Structure to design on (814 residues):
C-alpha cells in the first residue's frame, strides 16, 4: 500500500510540519554537536593520557641493606675502607625475589613486563669508558689489600723515565702505558707530577733520579697528576735490563684494571620502555633504535661514549665473550661486568672465584642497531646505567636454563596499561609486596597533576552532553506525543477500515521517518559547522596540560553515530506509541479513547 | 443462511454499570434493508459496532455466516466482509475526496490506476462532481461528505453495509437520495444493509425494523 497518508498529510499541513521540523533540527543540532564534542574530548584525553603518561614501575627493598651483606660478592679479603659507602647500598641494587616479581607481573593491569638479566661481556679489542665518580672499578683508585679506594682518582700504570725533579714536582716521560686512559696518558708524552703528599717526599721523590726508569702508578686529578699512594709499588725502579718486580697487590691491581678496561655490562631486556629514564625521555636513542618488543636476533645498543671511544657506529658489530659471573659493582642499576674466566690468561685471582666456574662462557657477535644516550647521566642516581652497559634482546641470554636469574630493580620493570589503573594496581598487589619486604615504586610522569585538569575537562563536556541528551529526550517525547495525538484520528479510521496494525503503523512512521531524517541531516550539518573550531580549542587545552603539542580531531563518525542515534530514538518512541494505541480496539479509538 | 447473526451478544463499556447491548440475538439476511431505531443512548451504534467488528462482544458471538468473527482476522473482516458508513463520516481530512474513496480499494491490493477510475465512478453515482472530487472533506457540505462516505463504503465491495445514522446530517432531499441508494443496494444488488437511525421516516423505507431499548433488541416489523 502506498504510504500516501503519512507523506501526504505532512506536506498538506506545512505549518505544523515546519514547526516539528524546526524543533527536531534544533535538538539534533544540540545533541549531535555536544555528543561529538564529548566523544572527542574523552577520546583525545584518553589518547593524551596513554601517550604522555606512560606508567612504569619497579620493586625495591624497603630498607637499606648493609654494605657488608654484599661482601660475599667480592670474595674473601674485600672490605670497605671508604666511609662514603658505609651508609649502605642503594635499594635499587638489592636483589628481589622471583615471588615478588611474579606478584607484580601477574596483575591484570600490567601492560608490559621486562625481566632483565645481566651478565658480563669482555672483548680485549674494545675499551671501556672512564666513568667518574667511580664505584665500578675502571681505572679507579685501588688500595692495598684489595680494599676500596678513594673514588675520583683515575689511575694509570706506566713505565716512565724521570726527566727532572725538584722538591715539589717531577717531570716524567711516558715510555709505555701498561694500562690507562690514552686521553690522559699517551706514550711519547711528558707529564708533570705534583707532590701533594709532602710527608712522602722521600718515599718516591727522594728515590727518583733523572734518567732513571720506573714503574709508576699515576692518578689524574682536577689540578694535575699525582702519584697514587694507595698502590704499594707506586714508584718502583726498573733495572737497566728492563726488569722490575711488583708486589702481588700491585700486580692484582694492574690485572684488575686491565680486566676492567675490556669489560662491559650486558643487560638482556625485552623492552627498554619500562626503564624509568627511557619513559621520561632522559635516556633515548641518539641513533638507531633502543631494544623493544620488535627487537630480535643478536643485536645490541651501546652508549654514545662507548661508540666514540671505540669508533663504533650503527651497523658495526661487536664481539663479546659472555659470562654469567659478576664481581663488585654494588650500588648501580647496571649489570655487572664479568671476571675473565680462569685460563684465559687474563684471570684475576680472587675475582674469578666470584664467577660461575661451571658455566662455560659464550662468545657472540652483536650488530649495533642503536646508540643510547643519557641526558641526565649521574652515577649517584641509582637509576642511571653505566656508560659501559650494552643492551641486547632478552632472548640473546645464552644460558636460558640452569642459571637462576637474579632480579633487582635494574633487572625488572613493568608498565601499566593506563595511569588510571595505578590505584587499582596498588590495591591488588602492594600489600603483599610490602609483606615480602619490598615497596612498589611507580612513576606516572606527572599524571596525578594532570588528571584533575583532564577530569575537569571531561566533566564539563559530559555535563553539556547530558544536558543536551535530556533536552533531546524531552523534545523527542514531545514530538512523538504530538505526532501520535495528531495521527490518532487518521489511525482510528485506518483501523476501522480494516488496516492491519503493522501496516497502519508503517504508514504513519514513513512520514515521521522522512521528517526526522531531514531534521537530523540538517541538524548534524549545522553541528559539524558549529564545531569547526572545537578541535583547535581542544588541542590547545590538552596541550596546556601536557605541556606539549596536541593535534585533536573530531571524528566524523561521531556525528553520524549521534545523528543515527537521534533518528533511532525518535522512531523507537513513535513505534512504542503506535504499538500502544494499536492495542486499543477501533471502537474506542473512534470514540477518542 | 444469514449473512450476519448475533447470538446472545452483550457489550458493556469499561467502567459502565450496565451493558450497552444486552443479550441480543437476531439474524440479518442478504438482500434486505434493516433499520434499527431507538432513542439516543439505547445502544444502537454500539450494536452496529459489534456487527462491524470494531470491538468484540463482552459475551456472545457475532457470526459471519456460521463463523464467529471472534475466530477470524478482524482486520480482514472489516476490510473485506463489511463496510461501514460512520455517523461522523470519518473521512481522512488531509486526503482528497477521491483519495478517501481509493483508500479501501488500495487496502485490498488494487493499484491506483484501477482504484482511481472506480472511485470516480462511485462518486459520480452518489452525485459528487468532478470538481468536488478534488476537494478536501472540510470543503464539502455535510450531505456531500455523507455521500463520499457512502462511496467509500461501496468501494471495498463488501456485501454487508452498515450505516450509522447515514441521514443524520442531511436535508430531506439528500435523505431521500441516500435511502434510495441503500434500498437499491439491498433489493437490486443483494446487499445486506443495516441502518441505525432515530428517524422513523428512514425506518419506513426498510424491509425489517428493529427497535433498540436500553440495550435490548425487539423486532417491530
Amino acid at each position: 500500500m502506498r504510504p500516501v497518508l503519512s507523506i501526504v498529510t505532512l506536506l498538506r499541513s506545512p505549518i505544523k510540519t515546519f514547526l516539528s521540523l524546526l524543533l527536531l533540527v534544533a535538538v539534533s543540532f544540540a545533541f549531535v554537536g555536544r555528543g561529538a564534542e564529548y566523544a572527542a574530548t574523552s577520546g583525545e584525553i584518553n589518547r593524551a593520557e596513554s601517550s604522555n603518561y606512560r606508567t612504569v614501575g619497579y620493586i625495591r627493598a624497603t630498607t637499606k641493606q648493609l654494605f657488608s651483606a654484599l661482601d660475599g660478592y667480592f670474595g674473601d679479603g674485600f672490605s670497605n675502607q671508604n666511609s662514603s659507602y658505609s651508609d649502605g647500598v642503594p635499594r635499587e641494587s638489592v636483589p628481589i625475589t622471583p615471588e615478588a616479581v611474579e606478584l607484580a607481573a601477574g596483575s591484570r593491569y600490567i601492560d608490559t613486563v621486562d625481566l632483565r638479566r645481566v651478565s658480563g661481556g669482555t672483548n680485549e679489542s674494545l675499551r671501556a669508558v672512564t666513568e667518574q665518580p667511580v664505584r665500578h672499578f675502571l681505572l679507579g683508585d685501588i688500595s692495598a689489600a684489595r680494599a676500596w679506594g678513594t673514588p675520583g682518582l683515575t689511575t694509570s700504570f706506566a713505565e716512565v723515565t724521570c726527566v727532572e725533579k725538584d722538591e715539589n714536582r717531577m717531570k716524567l716521560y711516558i715510555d709505555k702505558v701498561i694500562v690507562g686512559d690514552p686521553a690522559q696518558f699517551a706514550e711519547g708524552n711528558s707529564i708533570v707530577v705534583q707532590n701533594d703528599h709532602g710527608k712522602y717526599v722521600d718515599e718516591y721523590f727522594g728515590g727518583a733520579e733523572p734518567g732513571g726508569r720506573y714503574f709508576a702508578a699515576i692518578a689524574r686529578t682536577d689540578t694535575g697528576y699525582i702519584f697514587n699512594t694507595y698502590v704499594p709499588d707506586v714508584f718502583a725502579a726498573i733495572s737497566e735490563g728492563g726488569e722490575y718486580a711488583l708486589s702481588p697487590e700491585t700486580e692484582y691491581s694492574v690485572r684488575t684494571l686491565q680486566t676492567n678496561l675490556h669489560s662491559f655490562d650486558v643487560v638482556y631486556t625485552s623492552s627498554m620502555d619500562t626503564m624509568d629514564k627511557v619513559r621520561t625521555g632522559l635516556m633515548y636513542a641518539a641513533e638507531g633504535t633502543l631494544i623493544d618488543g620488535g627487537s630480535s636476533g643478536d643485536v645490541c645498543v651501546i652508549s654514545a661514549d662507548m661508540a666514540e671511544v671505540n669508533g663504533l657506529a650503527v651497523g658495526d658489530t661487536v664481539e663479546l665473550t659472555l659470562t654469567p659471573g659478576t664481581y663488585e659493582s654494588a650500588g648501580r642499576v647496571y649489570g655487572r661486568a664479568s671476571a675473565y674466566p680462569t685460563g684465559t690468561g687474563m684471570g684475576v685471582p680472587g675475582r674469578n672465584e666470584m664467577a660461575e666456574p661451571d658455566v662455560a662462557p659464550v662468545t657472540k657477535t652483536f650488530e649495533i642497531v642503536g646508540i643510547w644516550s643519557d641526558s641526565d647521566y649521574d652515577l649517584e642516581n641509582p637509576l642511571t646505567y653505566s656508560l659501559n652497559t650494552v643492551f641486547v634482546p632478552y632472548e640473546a641470554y645464552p644460558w636460558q636454563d640452569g642459571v637462576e636469574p637474579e632480579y633487582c630493580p635494574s633487572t625488572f620493570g613493568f608498565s601499566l596499561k593506563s595511569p588510571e589503573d595505578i590505584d587499582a594496581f596498588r590495591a591488588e598487589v602492594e600489600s603483599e609486596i610490602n609483606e615480602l619486604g619490598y615497596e612498589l615504586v611507580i612513576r606516572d610522569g606527572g599524571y596525578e597533576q594532570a588528571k584533575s585538569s583532564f577530569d575537569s575537562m571531561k566533566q564539563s563536556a559530559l555535563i553539556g552532553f547530558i544536558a543536551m541528551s535530556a533536552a533531546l529526550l524531552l523534545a523527542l517525547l514531545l514530538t512523538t506525543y504530538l505526532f501520535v495525538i495528531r495521527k490518532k484520528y487518521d489511525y482510528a479510521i485506518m483501523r476501522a477500515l480494516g488496516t492491519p496494525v503493522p501496516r497502519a503503523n508503517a504508514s504513519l512512521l514513513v512520514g515521521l521517518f522522512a521528517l526526522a531524517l531531514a531534521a537530523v541531516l540538517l541538524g548534524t550539518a549545522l553541528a559539524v559547522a558549529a564545531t569547526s573550531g572545537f578541535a583547535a580549542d581542544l588541542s590547545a587545552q590538552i596541550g596546556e596540560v601536557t605541556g606539549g603539542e596536541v593535534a585533536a580531531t573530531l571524528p566524523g563518525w561521531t556525528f553520524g553515530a549521534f545523528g543515527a542515534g537521534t533518528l533511532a530514538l525518535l522512531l523507537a518512541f513513535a513505534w512504542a506509541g503506535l504499538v500502544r494505541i494499536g492495542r486499543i480496539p477501533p471502537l474506542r479509538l473512534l470514540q477518542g479513547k | 443462511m444469514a449473512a450476519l447473526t448475533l447470538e446472545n451478544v452483550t457489550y458493556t463499556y469499561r467502567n459502565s454499570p450496565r451493558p450497552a447491548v444486552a443479550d441480543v440475538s437476531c439474524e440479518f439476511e442478504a438482500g434486505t434493508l434493516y433499520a434499527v431505531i431507538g432513542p439516543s443512548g439505547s445502544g444502537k451504534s454500539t450494536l452496529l459496532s459489534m456487527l462491524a467488528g470494531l470491538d468484540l462482544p463482552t459475551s456472545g458471538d457475532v457470526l459471519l455466516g456460521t463463523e464467529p468473527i471472534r475466530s477470524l482476522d478482524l482486520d480482514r473482516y472489516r476490510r473485506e466482509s463489511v463496510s461501514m458508513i460512520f455517523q461522523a463520516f470519518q473521512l481522512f481530512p488531509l486526503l482528497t475526496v477521491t483519495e478517501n474513496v481509493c483508500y479501501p480499494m488500495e487496502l485490498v491490493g488494487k493499484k491506483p490506476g484501477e482504484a482511481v477510475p472506480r472511485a470516480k465512478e462511485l462518486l459520480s453515482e452518489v452525485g459528487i462532481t468532478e470538481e468536488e472530487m478534488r476537494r478536501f472533506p472540510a470543503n464539502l457540505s455535510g450531505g456531500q461528505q455523507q455521500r463520499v462516505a457512502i462511496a467509500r463504503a461501496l468501494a471495498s465491495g463488501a456485501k454487508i453495509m452498515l450505516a450509522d445514522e447515514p441521514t443524520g446530517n442531511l436535508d430531506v432531499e439528500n435523505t431521500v437520495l441516500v435511502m434510495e441508494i441503500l434500498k437499491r443496494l439491498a433489493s437490486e444488488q443483494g446487499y445486506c444493509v443495516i441502518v441505525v437511525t432515530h428517524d422513523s421516516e428512514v425506518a419506513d423505507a426498510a424491509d425489517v425494523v428493529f427497535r433498540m431499548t436500553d440495550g435490548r433488541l425487539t423486532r417491530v416489523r
Strands of chain B lie at 4-11, 21-28, 32-37, 59-64, 67-68, 82-85, 160-164, 192-197, 208-213, 216-219. The longest helix of chain B spans residues 172-189. The radius of gyration of chain B is 17 Å. Helices of chain B lie at 44-52, 74-81, 97-107, 112-125, 130-133, 142-155, 172-189, 200-204.
